[in-house]
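Query structure, 248 tokens:
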């Protein structure tokens, strides 16, 4: 079955897709109108609170979740109960891609999140019929592999200031179509979670945030709301090329 380009197809968008602010950027951008309508018949749009479980480590992973708004954290648990936040997913990421049906990580909303979920089998069936969709999913997988490699560098070689600056730039650039940093944003993680994600102690995270505030690089309205006063200084601290890679 051939699918016409949804941008030139005269048919109206499926109701679920009307007003979607990530349709042109995520995996759905590769869907022709036929496949878009087909996928929408199986899709469900949800507004989820922070802390909502999407899939737990070790569970069967039967659903793909397309991020429309908000942040999802992927966490790996060890046998002795220790855990590590291994990745953050921003819109329009597709959560649920993995080599096996059993999820290797737990995925929970880090913030309130709007998501569009559909059966894994349905999207994979569509991808088997559409080279464009298959290519888009492959590109996203390769991008995530690049991000993981760069984050290994950040955790292994960067000092505490550089790690925190990289994290702040990554969040500031999330959801930005033109790679420009937002000047004001809310942190998707609390300080304990930031410490976990960066491999630092809570005290070190707090100390580095205080130093950034005292040097007027950032302002803090409270523990979550950040204003960037000097984006250039923050980029230099983080390594601009790394921060840009991690945010897309």
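Result returned for the query:
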């Amino acid at each position: 079955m051939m699918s016409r380009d949804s941008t030139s197809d005269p048919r109206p968008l499926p109701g679920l897709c009307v007003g979607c602010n990530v349709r042109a950027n995520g995996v759905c951008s590769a869907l022709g109108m036929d496949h878009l309508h087909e996928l929408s018949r199986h899709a469900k749009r949800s507004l989820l609170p922070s802390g909502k479980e999407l899939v737990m480590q070790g569970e069967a992973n039967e659903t793909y979740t397309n991020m429309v708004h908000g942040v999802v954290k992927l966490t790996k648990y060890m046998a002795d109960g220790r855990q590590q936040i291994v990745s953050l997913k921003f819109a329009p990421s597709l959560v649920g891609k993995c080599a096996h049906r059993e999820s290797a990580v737990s995925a929970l909303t880090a913030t309130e999140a709007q998501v569009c979920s559909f059966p894994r089998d349905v999207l994979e069936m569509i991808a088997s019929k559409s080279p464009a969709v298959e290519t888009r999913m492959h590109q996203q997988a390769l991008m995530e592999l690049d991000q993981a490699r760069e984050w290994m560098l950040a955790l292994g070689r960067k000092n505490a200031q550089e790690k925190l600056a990289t994290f702040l730039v990554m969040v500031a650039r999330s959801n930005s179509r033109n790679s420009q940093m937002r000047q004001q944003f809310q942190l998707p993680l609390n300080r304990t979670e930031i410490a976990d994600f960066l491999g630092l102690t809570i005290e070190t995270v707090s100390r580095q945030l205080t130093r950034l505030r005292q040097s007027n690089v950032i302002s803090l309205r409270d523990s979550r709301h950040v204003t960037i006063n000097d984006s250039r200084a923050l980029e230099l601290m983080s390594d601009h090329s790394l921060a840009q890679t991690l945010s897309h």
